[in-house]
Amino acid sequence: MIIIFGLLFFISCGSVVNQGENYGNLLDSPEGLALTESEHEIGWGRSDCTTCHNLDNIHLIDRTGGLVDIEVVHDHALQEGVSGCAACHGTNGAP
After folding, report:
1. Overall pTM surpassing 0.90 (yes/no)
2. What is the pLDDT of residues 21-37, one digit of tens each?
3. Helix (H) or strand (E) run with residue 74 in it
């Protein structure tokens, strides 16, 4: 029994790195970092970004090809919370 639990423990300790949410390189989209209705249909018009996006799981990987310091961006998201989203991504159609 101990051997089984030991094996399960080691199997569960994989080395997979959390890639976070992946929306590709947003700089390649029509409005750059600013969200558009066509890109963000489900959440368009909402200001409560964390209903869908976990702040701990965003901005983990630089998908811009090295144009941003992703650690600074991630830390900013964690510190500012939802109030910081609009600074980079626009109002998302919210009033």
Report:
1. no
2. 999 999 999 999 999 99
3. helix 70-80
Residue with tokens 């409560």: 48
Whether the CB-CB separation of 14 and 50 falls below 8 Å is answered with: no
* Calpha distance 42→56 (Å, rounded): 21
- Separation of alpha carbons 76 and 85, rounded Å: 9
Contacts of 95 (CB under 8 A, 6+ apart): none
* Percentage helix, strand, coil for the chain under 3-state DSSP, each rounded to 5: 40, 0, 60
Domain boundaries, the chain: 30-95
Q: Which of 71, 73, 70, 72 minimizes the C-alpha distance to 62?
A: 70
